Amino acid sequence: MRFGRLDLNLLVALDALLDEKSVSMAADRLCLSQSATSSALGRLRDYFGDDLLVVKGRAMVLTPRAEELIDPVRAVLEQIRSTVAVAPPFDPATCDRQIRMMASDYSTQALLAEAFALFEKEAPAMRFEVQPMGDNPIESIERGHIDLLLTIDVAIAADHPSQILFEDDYVVVGWAENPALRGPISREAYFALGHVTARFGRARVPAFDDWFVRRQKQQRRIEVVAPSFLSLPGLVVGTRRIATMHRRMAEMVVRNMPLVAREVPFDIPPIREAVQWNIANTNDKALRWVVDRLAAVARAGAGDRLESDDDPDRQSLEVEYRMNHPQR
Predict the structure, then answer these.
(1) What value does the mean pLDDT take over residues 80-99?
(2) What is the pLDDT at residue 3?
(3) Closest by alpha carbon to 191, among 180, 203, 178?
(4) What is the pLDDT of residues 253-304, one digit of tens each?
(5) Domain range 98-167+271-324, its CATH number among 1.10.10.410, 3.40.190.10, 3.90.190.20, 1.10.10.10
(6) Residue 80: DSSP 8-state
(7) Can you tell me whether residue 133 is helix, strand or coil?
(8) Whole-angstrom distance, CA of residue 82 vs CA of residue 93
(9) How far is CA 155 from CA 105, 149, 199, 230, in A?
(10) Cβ distance 149 to 101 under 8 Å?
(11) Is 203 a residue whose pLDDT tops 80?
(12) What DSSP character marks residue 304?
């Protein structure tokens, strides 16, 4: 279909090229050959009278004209998706769709593992991809690289829809033969022992408990930094070190490893796990079905009372967390 001299099919190719800044990566995203994508770029250059992408060093960069086109092209495509394209009736039993999520290994174990088992029965043709937490998950939502983001509520974006799924708190986990864990652990012992913690991405973003404990007057000694929550249990076995872990995950690992769990000897606010999606996908029936089923699985396995959204202490904590973890 053409609008004036422009083949409207090229807008999809243009959006991919502007986003990826690479012909080969845009070709993969469009499921086209590299030669076909190069041909589309040539036609776009002819229409706009501009190179759009130029080689600079070992990479391609956008021309000023191409930079100007990013937002208008994306807006046009989103408008088409939300108002012109007529979605067929959604039936989970026959839906052949891939849903891309970004989630930590904790979220995967605490919720997604059970949810995916349910989805296999209710939506057998639906496929899922779970990506590890990146340095800028909100950007991944906004650029369409993922469909759903699972993270703590203080880390979600205010300008995209979200839903709270469940609440969890923290416990101390250590080797069953650690003499410091023969009974309840004191605050003094907690800060005297060595700790194992998880940090994520190239920026080494700390987990919420790590960030919160740093706010204490007394600092703990981090002896091992791990790349994931699931690696924490194995790194304390056979040592006097301890790890502060989500209770849900701790209950899983102490059943299968020589570990014990003890209550944290001071107050750490519970985390609230949330799911977020791009506001442009609010009417996506498949995504909303997945969100609803995730919430149902979370409710069935929890029964927890969520803290009130108008809790002034939590609001203050959220403001401080966002100031320390800018989303863009």
Answers:
(1) 79
(2) 47
(3) 180
(4) 999 999 999 999 999 999 999 999 998 888 899 999 999 999 999 988 665 4
(5) 3.40.190.10
(6) I
(7) coil
(8) 24
(9) 16, 10, 15, 21
(10) yes
(11) no
(12) P
User: How far are the Cα atoms of 3, 57, 218 from residue 152, in angstroms, in the given order?
Assistant: 44, 40, 25
Q: Name the residue ranges covered by the structural domains of the chain.
A: 2-84, 98-167+271-324, 170-263
User: Does 79 have pLDDT greater than 70?
Assistant: yes
Q: How far apart are CA 278 and CA 148, in angstroms?
A: 8
Backbone angles phi, psi at 98, to 5 degrees: -100, 130
In the CATH scheme, what is the code of domain 170-263? Answer: 3.40.190.10
Grouping H, G, I as helix, E, B as strand and the rest as coil, residue 142 is helix
C-alpha R_g of the chain: 24
**Residue 178: what are its φ and ψ, rounded to 5°?**
-70, 115
Q: Tell me what the pLDDT averaged over the chain comes to.
A: 87
**236 contacts 181 by C-beta, under 8 angstroms:** no
Could you give phi then psi for residue 307, rounded to 5 degrees? -65, 150
pLDDT at 1: 39
Contact between 165 and 111 under an 8 Å Cβ cutoff? The reply is yes
Distance of CA 152 to the CA centre of its chain: 9
Lowest mean pLDDT among 43-57, 116-130, 302-316: 302-316
pLDDT band for position 8 (50/70/90)? low
Fold classification of 2-84 is: Arc Repressor Mutant, subunit A (1.10.10)
Where do we find the tokens 């300008």?
159
Strand partners, 194: 221
Q: Cα–Cα distance between 36 and 327 in angstroms, integer?
A: 36
